[in-house]
Automatic annotation (TrEMBL):
Gene3D superfamilies (UniProt xref): 1.10.1740.10, Winged helix-like DNA-binding domain superfamily/Winged helix DNA-binding domain
Similarity annotation: Belongs to the sigma-70 factor family. ECF subfamily.
NCBIfam families linked: sigma70-ECF
InterPro entries per UniProt: RNA_pol_sigma-70-like, RNA_pol_sigma-70_dom, RNA_pol_sigma70_r2, RNA_pol_sigma_r2, RNA_pol_sigma_r3/r4-like, WH-like_DNA-bd_sf
Domain RNA polymerase sigma-70 region, chain residue ranges per copy: 37-100
Protein name: Ecf-type RNA polymerase sigma factor
Keywords: DNA-binding, Sigma factor, Transcription, Transcription regulation
Pfam family of the protein (one): Sigma70_r2
Species in which this protein is naturally found: Thalassotalea eurytherma
């Protein structure tokens, strides 16, 4: 089977996100950065959106890519996805602290707790129920679950968050157990 030229280019070792970032920083190749953005923009936005509202997530996403563009440190990238998510995470936490958004999110979560599970079932499908239940978790449990959904291993999540492996494992366990209770899966 012959692959189209555009797809074939993505399969070469020189087209890995790590190599593309290195090419952007060493040679100023904007098309390399554009391909990295194309590859990860959606995933990073999903992560940010899962932890904040849409406008806030868009703002932090833009800040994240600006930080990537203006990066002045080492140009050796071993895992581009982890590096990008760590920048997004730090940017999100910084902005949440600046705007005291942590308080707003907590208040929204408490207001959400007052709704009954029965009214949620009548208003939403299963995906919406899961997302709503996810919002009821504390920030750190929700973050660990979202990172895991994005494909990061426990070790990578620990590195991204600066927490121990056991702390991440515990956050995932308690978060998943809380989700089961919220979704009415007590028997599992």
């Amino acid at each position: 089977m012959k692959l189209p030229r555009r797809i074939k280019g993505w399969l070469s070792a020189e087209s890995t996100p790590e190599h593309l970032l290195e090419r952007y920083y060493t040679k100023g190749d904007r098309s390399a950065l554009a391909r990295v953005v194309e590859c990860y923009n959606r995933d990073v936005f999903h992560y940010l959106l899962s932890l904040s509202d849409e406008e806030f997530a868009k703002d932090v996403l833009q800040m994240t890519w600006l930080k990537v563009i203006n990066h002045k440190g080492s140009h050796q990238f071993t895992h581009a996805k982890s590096w990008l998510f760590s920048i997004a995470r730090r940017s999100l936490i910084d902005e949440l602290r600046k705007t005291k958004h942590f308080v707003d999110i907590t208040e929204d979560i408490h207001a959400f707790h007052s709704q009954t599970l029965q009214s949620e079932l009548e208003l939403a499908d299963r995906v919406k129920l899961f997302n709503d239940a996810l919002l009821k978790l504390n920030f750190f449990q929700r973050e660990a679950i979202i990172f895991q959904q994005e494909g990061f291993s426990l070790t990578e999540i620990a590195q991204l968050t600066g927490e121990s492996f056991e702390t991440v494992k515990s956050r995932l366990r308690y978060g998943k157990n809380h989700l089961k209770v919220l979704l009415g899966h007590n028997d599992e």
